[in-house]
């Protein structure tokens, strides 16, 4: 029993339940996919347990206070894709969408799995070759790594069988496998780069989720570009990839990928220019910084106005410049959309100014202060999602683009904004951020945006787009309290409301039931255990269910066809709430995706 308890701690147990819920919901046509996911989960679980025997992971400096998170990071994105496959399979059986969309999503599922599989192979090799592999604990890790490799071999065989049955375009099985191999190799290279460039900024699981997502996102846009080029150069119908994309989807994908690739290109351009300029001029350090900043902003503007829109136009037929298309879209309903923009600006200005002053002049822990921003996300995004969902899609993309540009400016301390942005942003950081990279605002925005973006197209579960807003804006905000050592603080402005709703919540310290300590937070220079209460988790689960009971009739009144089953909704809310209670990973990134997956079933 002790061995089983160490094998399945709270976080791992919840992840196993999460994967099991998805696998048992699969139709017979997706049996092979479910079996492959089970093998991937077994390999990741074995590796996650083996990592516990190591004091530190070989070659990587991970985020202090967090577990490795290998299991959660490895299964999250493939499980999300498989849940979406279940939803699309229902649409195909009803003949509401074409089979090509189902086949495209199948390729996406195997590509996401290949990214995670490649990283797992890398981790197995690192553990097996650790210098201290003669130590008894290291020998345990090596045995777990070998078991993971066995699961990987079986998984690869299943992948070959499944890809051979896809009738997508003119790709044969060998080319499909090569495409999957490229995804896995790219994920291995990217996660090594991320963990070495930004040490102590993420756990293995968090880096794995980011890596697999970025590789899948870039691979999809690259495949679209290659398919369009092949159609122009060869024949019109010889190469097809995926289904028809919306203009908003292409704009967001092109802009975000362009901004992510921009630092790599800019470094190369800067090295060439500096090589020429340093030969001709001898300038001071300040002049060099100003020159570097001017070159940066010029290159960024040129990329955003010329290069990236050209890429978008090549992939999608806009019939006008994409920036002009955006203005045309916004002003097609000027009253509603401009009024919404004004409302967002007012909420942001009031909230940021208020909480910036509080963070500077108050002793309230920042991780608790940031819960107010979760509430702000509800106030901003919930009305827009109900009444202007397409405009909200575009707004999320623009906001992420602004965040990316500001983070590049902050990291490189570019004149004149770099130091000001850094000083402003550090006022809102918590224990999950570092001076090198600030990620918590990205995770909150992406946590709300991803379920909405993934719900575009066919969606027969009306609550699915609200997964991020409900789980982060409602559930996480309503979590009753945390204990930082001896410091007892309330984590929500709605604490009294939650307490009145739950009769089981007592007012004395002795009646509060705490989960096991799940992470370490540095407060005032000391590391203290974070303990979350059972009552807090119950408050979060209850508040989400109460919000859903109000939201479903509202959606029905606006024309949505409500097909949500309360049993599956309760399971989804409970599992995601328990994951928030137990996980030491960045919950803003994982919980919305887990909630989304379970709502799709």
Automatic annotation (TrEMBL):
Where it sits in the cell: the answer is: Endoplasmic reticulum membrane
Q: How does it sit in the membrane?
A: Multi-pass membrane protein
Leader sequence residues? none
Q: Which UniProt keywords apply?
A: Endoplasmic reticulum, Kinase, Membrane, Transferase, Transmembrane, Transmembrane helix
Q: What's the Enzyme Commission number for this chain?
A: 2.7.1.108
- Its chief place of residence is endoplasmic reticulum
Source domain of life: Eukaryota
Its GO CC terms are:
endoplasmic reticulum membrane
One MF term in the entry's GO annotations: dolichol kinase activity
One GO biological process term:
dolichyl monophosphate biosynthetic process
Q: Which residues cross the membrane?
A: 12-30, 66-87, 107-127, 147-171, 248-273, 294-315, 335-356, 368-388, 394-415, 436-456, 462-479
Q: What PANTHER family does its record include?
A: DOLICHOL KINASE, TRANSMEMBRANE PROTEIN 15-RELATED
Family to which this protein belongs: Belongs to the polyprenol kinase family.
Name under which the protein is recorded: dolichol kinase
Query: What is the species of this protein?
Result: Cannabis sativa (Hemp)
Q: List the top taxonomic levels of the source.
A: Eukaryota, Viridiplantae, Streptophyta, Embryophyta, Tracheophyta
């Amino acid at each position: 029993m002790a061995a089983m308890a160490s094998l399945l701690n709270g976080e791992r147990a919840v992840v196993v339940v999460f994967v099991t819920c998805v696998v048992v919901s699969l139709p017979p046509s997706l049996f092979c996919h479910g079996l492959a996911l089970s093998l991937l989960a077994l390999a990741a679980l074995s590796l996650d347990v083996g990592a516990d025997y190591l004091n530190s992971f070989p070659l990587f400096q991970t985020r202090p206070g967090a577990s490795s998170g290998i299991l959660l990071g490895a299964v999250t994105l493939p499980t999300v894709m498989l849940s979406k496959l279940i939803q699309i399979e229902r649409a195909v059986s009803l003949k509401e969408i074409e089979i090509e969309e189902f086949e495209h999503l199948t390729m996406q599922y195997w590509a996401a799995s290949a990214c995670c599989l490649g990283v797992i192979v890398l981790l197995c090799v690192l553990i097996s070759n650790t210098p201290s592999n003669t130590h008894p604990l290291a020998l345990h890790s090596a045995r777990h790594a070998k078991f993971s490799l066995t699961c990987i071999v079986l998984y690869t065989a299943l992948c070959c069988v499944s890809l051979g049955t896809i009738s997508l375009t003119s790709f044969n099985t060998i080319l499909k496998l090569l495409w999957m191999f490229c995804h896995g190799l790219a994920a291995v290279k990217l996660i090594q780069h991320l963990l070495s460039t930004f040490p102590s900024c993420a756990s293995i699981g968090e880096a794995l989720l980011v890596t697999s997502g970025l590789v899948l996102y870039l691979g999809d846009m690259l495949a679209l570009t290659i398919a369009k080029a092949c159609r122009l150069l060869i024949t019109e119908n010889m190469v097809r990839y995926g289904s028809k994309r919306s203009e908003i989807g292409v704009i967001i994908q092109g802009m975000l990928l362009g901004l992510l690739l921009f630092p790599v290109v800019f470094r190369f351009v800067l090295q060439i220019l500096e090589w020429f300029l340093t030969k001709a001029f001898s300038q001071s350090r300040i002049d060099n910084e100003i020159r570097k900043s001017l070159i940066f902003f010029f290159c960024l503007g040129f990329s955003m106005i010329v290069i990236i829109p050209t890429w978008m136009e090549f992939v999608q037929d806009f019939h006008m410049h994409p920036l002009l298309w955006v203005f045309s879209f916004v002003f097609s309903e000027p009253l509603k959309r401009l009024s919404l923009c004004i409302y967002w600006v007012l909420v942001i200005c009031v909230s940021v100014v208020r909480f910036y002053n509080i963070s500077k002049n108050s002793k309230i822990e920042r991780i608790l202060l940031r819960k107010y921003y979760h509430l702000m996300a509800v106030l901003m995004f919930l009305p827009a999602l109900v009444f202007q969902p397409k405009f909200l899609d575009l707004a999320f993309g623009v906001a992420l683009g602004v965040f990316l540009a500001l983070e590049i400016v902050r990291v490189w301390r570019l004149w004149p904004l770099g130091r000001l942005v850094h000083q402003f942003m550090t006022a809102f950081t918590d224990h999950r951020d570092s001076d090198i990279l600030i990620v918590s605002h990205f995770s909150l925005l992406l946590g709300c945006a991803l379920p909405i973006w993934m719900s575009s197209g066919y969606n027969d579960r009306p609550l699915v787009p609200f997964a991020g807003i409900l789980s982060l804006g409602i559930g996480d905000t309503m979590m009753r309290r945390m204990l930082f050592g001896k410091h007892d603080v309330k984590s929500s402005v709605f604490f009294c409301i939650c307490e009145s709703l739950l009769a089981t919540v007592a007012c004395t310290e002795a009646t509060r039931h705490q989960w096991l300590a799940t992470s370490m937070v540095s407060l005032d220079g000391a590391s203290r255990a974070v303990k979350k209460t059972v009552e807090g988790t119950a408050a979060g689960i209850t508040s989400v269910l109460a919000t859903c009971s109000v939201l479903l009739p509202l959606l029905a009144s606006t024309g949505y066809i409500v097909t949500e089953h309360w049993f599956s909704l309760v399971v989804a809310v409970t599992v995601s709430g328990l994951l928030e209670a137990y996980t030491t990973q960045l919950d803003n990134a994982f919980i919305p995706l887990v909630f989304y997956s379970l709502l799709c079933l």
